[in-house]
Amino acid sequence: MQIKKSFLYTLSLILHINLILISVTNALNQDGLILQKAKLSFYDPAGSLANWSDRDATPCNWTGITCDNKESVVSVILYNSSLSGSFPISLCLLPSLSTIDLSENSINSSLPLSISTCRNLTFLDVSQNLFVGPVPSTLSDLIFLRYLSLEGNNFAGEIPTTFGNFRQLEVLELSNNVLTGTIPAALGNITSLKKLELAYNTFSQGDLPPEFGNLTNLEELWLTNCNLLGTIPQSLGRLSRLTNLDVGQNKLTGLIPSVIFHLKLIEQIELYDNGFTGKLPAGWLKLTKLRRFDASRNKLTGVISNELCELPLESLNLYNNRLEGSIPDSIAKSPNLQELHLYGNQLVGKLPSELGKYSYLRTFDVSNNSLSGEIPGFLCHNGALEELVLINNQFSGIIPLDIVKCRTLMRIRMRGNRLHGEVPPEFWGLPHVYLLDLHGNAFSENISSLIYGAQNLSNLDISDNKFSGSIPSEIGSLKKLGKFYANNNELRGEIPSTIVNLGQLGLLNLCNNKLSGEIPKGIKSLTMLNELNLANNDLSGKIPGEIGELPVLNYLDLSNNHFSGLIPISLQNLKLNKLNVSNNQLSGYIPDFLFLDIYRDSFLGNPDLCLNDSHSCNSRSGGNNGVLSWIYWLILVALGVVCLVGLVWLMRKYKKITKTKKGIATSTWTSFHNLDFSELEINDSLEEANVIGRGGSGNVYKVVLSNGEIMAVKKLLETPYENKNSEFEVEVETLGKIRHKNIVRLWCCCSKENYKLLVYEYMINGSLGDVLHGNNTRTFLDWPMRFRIALGAAEGLSYLHHDAVPSIVHRDVKSNNILLDENFEAKISDFGVAKVVKSVANGGGVETMSMIAGSCGYIAPEYAYTLRVSEKSDIYSFGIVIFELVTGKPPIDPEFGDKDLAAWVRTTLDKNGIDHVLDPRLESKFKEYIIKVLDIGLLCTSAIPINRPSMRRVVKMLREMRASMDSTIPI
Ligand SMILES: *[C@@H]1O[C@H](CO)[C@@H](O)[C@H](O)[C@H]1NC(C)=O
Ligand SMILES: *[C@@H]1O[C@H](CO)[C@@H](O)[C@H](O)[C@H]1NC(C)=O
Fold first, then answer.
1. pTM: predicted TM-score of the whole model, two decimal places
2. Binding-site residues from annotation for ATP
3. Where do transmembrane segments lie in this chain (predicted)?
4. What is the pLDDT at residue 340?
5. Beta strand 171-173 with 178-180: parallel, antiparallel or unpaired?
6. Exposure of 797 in the CB half-sphere (CA atoms within 13 A)
7. What pLDDT digit, counting tens, does each position of 602-653 carry?
8. 518-620: which CATH number, 3.90.226.10, 3.90.550.10, 3.80.10.10, 1.10.579.10?
9. How do the domains of the chain map onto residue ranges?
10. By three-state DSSP, how is residue 635 classified?
11. Of the residues 812, 874, 900, 915, which is catalytic?
C-alpha cells in the first residue's frame, strides 16, 4: 500500500514536471522550434543569430526571418553573415517557406538530395559559399522554384539532366564551380528562363547546344570559359529578348554569324578570346541598342565595318586580331564612346580627326598597328581622357594642344613613333600622370622645369630622342619617381644635385648623353636605387665612396667617362651583377674582392689600374695581363671542382638505375579510373631519358602510351618516412578518390616489393618552380597568371584541409609541387609525404611525425623543433609560394646570404620598402593587388601558427580580390 502510494506520488510529480517543461518550450511556436534546430547546423562565430532566442513566442522578429500574417515563416535571408557549417536541411520542415538566401557565407557541406522536401520554395540562393559535392538532381522537383543560384562554390559533377524539367525557373546561376561533363541540351527545355549563367566551370569540350534557341524569354546568357567548341548555332537568332550575350574565353570558331542581327534588344556582345575567323558580318544597323562589343583576341580579318562604328557604342574592343584598313571616321560620332581598344592589328591610315569631340572618351589604345598621320586634336575635348596609348605606330607631327592641356591624363605611352618637336612645358607637369613614355621618337629641346607639377609621376621614359639642354633641378621634387630613363639623348650640363632627394628612385639611366661634372654628393640617400647607368658621358671626378652605401644597388655602369682616382673599397658592400668602370682614368689597385669572373671585363681601358702590389704597377699592359691570368687560374680551379662533383653524382645515379632495373616481379595495381593500358607499357618507359622531375622520394617520368595518351609516373624508391606499408595504401586510396580542379589526378598506383608507382595526369607546363626560377624561360608569368595560380593552389589546399574526408595535410607544399596545366591552372601534386589527419573537425588536428618532411626554405619554424604536423605548417609553406610569386625569387638563394626568402622579404620590407620586394618585371598597374597578395603571404608566414589564416580564409580573401581586379584592362 505504502509502495503504491509513493509510486503514484512519483508519477504525478513526473507528470507535473513534464507539464512545466512543455509549457516552457511551448512559448516558442513550431516554426521557431524548427529554426532552433536549423541553427544547430551553423557555426556562427560573428553571432549573427544571437537574437534567435527560444524565449520568444514566435521567430518573426529574429534576424533574417520574415513571417506571413499567420506567423508562419516564409523567408530565411542570411546572406553575408559569416556562417559556416552545413546546410540546415531542417528548414524544409517549415511548411510555408518560400525563400532561402544563404549567399556569401562559408557553408561547406553538400546540398542534400532532400532539398526537394522544401515544397514551396520559389527562391534558393546559396551562391558564394564553399559547398561541395554534386548538384542535387532533385532540385527540379521544386515545382514552384523561380530563382536558383549555386554560383561561386565547389559543386562538382555534371549538371543533372533533370534540370530540363523546371517549369517556372527564371534564373539559373551555376557559374564559378567545378562542374564537369558537357552542358546538357535539356536546359533548352526551361523556356521560362530569363537568365542563364554557366560561366567559369571545368566542363569538357562540347558544343553550345542548339536547343538554347528555344529559350525565347532569355535576357542574359553568360557562358564565359565553358570549353565551348564549334560555331555559334543559328538557332540563337531566336532569342529576341536577349540583352547580354557573353561567350568569351571559349574555343568557338567559324565566322561571327549574322544571326546575331536578330537579337534586336542586345546591349552587350562578348566574343573575346575565341577562334573566330573571317570578316565581321554586315547588318549592324539593326542592333540599335548595342552599346558594348568585344571581339578581341580572335583571328578576325578584313576591315572594321563602318556600320558597326555608326552605332552609338560606349565601348569597342577589337584588339589582337588581324584587322586591316583604316578606322572608320563614323566611330567619332558616337556620343557614348568611352573606351576604344584596337591595338595589335594591321590598321593603317590616319585616326578619325574628330575622335573625342562628341563623347567623354576615357581610354584609347591603338598600339602596334601601322597608323600614321598626326594625333587628332580632340581626344581630350570633353576632359575625360585618362589613358592615351599609341605605342609602335608611325604617328608624326607634334603633340596637339588638346593633349598638352589634358589634365585628366594618367597614362601616356607614345613610344615607337615619329613624333617630333618640342614637348610643351605644360605637358611635362600634368598633375595625375603616373606613366609618361616618349621613348623612341624625335622629340627635341628641353625638359621643362614645370615638371615639378607631375607629382604622381612614377615612370618617366624619354630615352632615344633628341632632348637637349640640362636636366632641370625640379626633377628632384618628384617624390614618387621610381624609374627615369633619359638615355640616348643630347642632354648636357651636370646631373642636378636635387636628384639625391628621389627616395623612391630604383632606376636611373642617363647613358649616352653629354653630361659633365661629378656624381652629386649625397647619392647614398637613394636607398631604393637598383640600377645606375651613367655610361658614355663626360663625367669626371672620383667615384664617390658613398656608392658602396646604396643598399640594393646591383647594376653599376660608369664606363666611357673621365672618372679618376681609386676604385672605392666600399664597393665590397655591394652585390653587383654588373659593374663596368672601363675606359676611364682610374688608378691604383683593383681590390681583391672584385676578382670574380663576372667582373672580367669591368676594368678595361684604365691604363693606370693594376692588380695588387705583387705585380708591377708601372707596366701598363702588365697590370691587365696580371688580372687576366689570375682570373683564368681561378676559373680553372672552379671548373675542376665542378667536374669532380659531377662525376661523383653520375656514379651515384648509375648505381641507382642499375638497382631499380631489377625486380618487376609481383605487384598489385589499384586503379581509380577506367584505364586501358598495361603495367608493362608503363614499365618500359621508366628510363632515364624520360625523367621530367627528380624529388627526394623518387623520379617522375613522362610516359607516352601506345594509344597516344600521356601520363606522369612517379616511382617511389625507399620510403624512409613510412613505418607500415598499409599507411601508404590508405593515403593512396584517399587521394585516388579526390576530385578537385586544383589537385592533380591520380589515375592509379602500383605497389611492388622495393618500389611503388603512382600514375598521374600529365601537366604540360611543368611546375611553377620551373617556370619561375628554372630553365623554362619560354614563359613569363604576368601578374594575372600568377594571381590565378595563387588562387588555384589555395583552393586545392583548402579542399585538402577542410573538405576532404578525412582531412589531409600535404606537408611538402612548394612551387615545385604546384603543376601547371595547358591553361596554366595550378594543380597541387606530390602527396609522397602527405598525411591523413584523423581529427581536424575543429580545425586543429595535430599529429607528431617521426621525421621532418618538407623542403628547405618552406618549413615552418615550429616544425623544426616540435615535429608536430598540422595544416598550419602547410599554410606557412603556401605563404612562401606567395612570396615567390610576388618577388619572382626562389625560396633560398645566395643573394639572401644566410637568410631564406621569408626572412629576406621581411628585412627588405623594413629596410628598403615595398618596391625592393616586388618582382620588377610585373606591371606597375597591378601594384595595389600585388601588395595585397604579399600581405596574405605575410599573414601565412606568421611565426606563431595560430596567427596564420586558414586556407579557407585565404581563398575567401583572394576571391574578393579577384572580383575587383577583373575590372583592370589588359595591355
Ligand atoms: C596616381 O597614380 C596611380 C597609379 O600609379 C593612380 O592609381 C592614382 O589615381 C593617381 N593619383 C592621382 C592623384 O592622380
Ligand atoms: C664595359 O664597357 C666596355 C666598353 O664599352 C665593354 O667593352 C665591356 O665589355 C663592358 N664590360 C662589361 C662587363 O659590361
1. 0.65
2. 715
3. 7-28, 630-651
4. 97
5. unpaired
6. 35
7. 999 998 888 665 444 443 333 344 444 444 444 444 444 443 444 444 444 4
8. 3.80.10.10
9. 1-89, 518-620, 668-761, 768-968
10. helix
11. 812
